[in-house]
Design a protein that fits this description.
By secondary structure, the chain is of the alpha+beta class. The protein folds into 2 domains: 7-17 and 169-490, no CATH class; 31-148, 2-Layer Sandwich (Copper Amine Oxidase, Chain A, domain 1), CATH 3.30.457. It contains 12 helices and 28 strands. It has a 15-stranded mixed beta sheet that branches. A hairpin with a 2-residue loop joins strand 1 and strand 2.
Amino acid sequence: MKKFLPAALCAGLLAALLSVPALAAPAAPEMQGDFYVLVNGQYVTFTDAMPQIQDGRSCLPFAAVFQQLGFAQEDMTWDGETRTVTAAKGELVISLTIGSNEITVTRSGKAETYTSDVAPYVSAEGRTYIPFGVVAGILGYNVGWDAQNKAVIIDDVDAILAANTATYELMDQYLAYSKSISQGSVKAEGKLAASTAFEIGDTTRPGADHMTVDLGWEGEYWMLMSDNNNFEFCLTMDAEGGKGNGGSLFEELYNAFPDFIAVDMIGDLKSGTFYTRFPFTTIEQGEEIPEKFDFPWYKLDMKAMFDQMSDVTGMDYEQLIGLSMASLDQSFADSLAMILKEMPLTTVEFTATDYLAMFNALCADSSFTKSGNEYVNEFVSMDGVSGTFILTTAAGKVDGYSLGFAMAEPTTGLEMAFATAMKGKEMTAEFAVGVDQLPVDESNSLSLSILFSMDGTYSATTEQPDTAPPAGATVVDLMEMMQAELDLENTPAA
């Protein structure tokens, strides 16, 4: 989100990361107590005291879990007089008192007090239990819950990264390259094209009913980005023309597509306020395309929307933007640490260990092979996805990249490919998806192809983007409109 320059790379990296095989999740043992406990990607085995649910909180035996997190048994103490348990590791000390909701954490001699909604307690078997999810969060661990598998996930990211031997010199060079081009006010502009073609029906018999459609658009875009925050985007596309058969059905479909498409978008990333409009219109042959469009702007409060989903995503909008902004001047390793600490943990299939393995498979220096002035990383997943990530260099520094991947799904015949590249201040991106003779029923099949391509050039500029529609413009609040529709649907009939 923070910059337009590396946006294509970031999108491609995300897709590529999802295609790289993760580590195989360890086989789950027989459940002990009320839920599983997964620490740093490994299931914890309990010898006597078992995990319990207390007042809706996951509570764990004090000694067993702290040992899993690197606290030595000799550094865990019990004060019978005050009924206080204490664990220490280096300059970190944590103390909890039975029946008290207060938790004291001392770091380098400085004590802080936190409050938990569930107090530590002693079980009927005489074992000390603590609300470890709360404690782990206080200590800076990443904590999650896998509802499907009934598992508490605890990742000590610092410990995981301490054992990580990978280096990221090449990615640091890429970050320096992208920053050198995109800092300050930047304008990106270029051309794009899109097309869709499909054929449906019985193609095995001459004269049988079937329909073919071939449609395309060509256009231009520009984008202003300032202060890693404000942006303005404009896109215009003209219909290239269409051809096909299918009688009135084709004509109806073809006429449904506009001859001219425009998209305007402006916004402020920090506030999370975005405005967009989609002026679709029909332009007669030879008629001049208007410079301004009198169409309503649609307001989207991304902050409000993201905050409402924070229970699912694991972070609110302010945290997301803070993470993005904080990474601007960090090394790749530091950014990686931040990502792993903030990554929501919702399944035992993907913990910090798995995400680290995927990042390393794509971005670690050891995953690249030097070939002339290029560093090449070729990867293949178990799901039929193959890809190549290349960093180009000049004078010992990264000055460009290319990333591409392709997949084929043998059962349906679906094929998809994506490629993006940057060299100096010029970029290209291509996307293609298609399927050939996919059976629809006993006699009919579908063939489909969708193609999209774009290029662009980046340059410094003194232009500043608009962040709000002009005075007097019609603005429709999408959040209010959706809420009004929900209220209408929920209104009982008279």
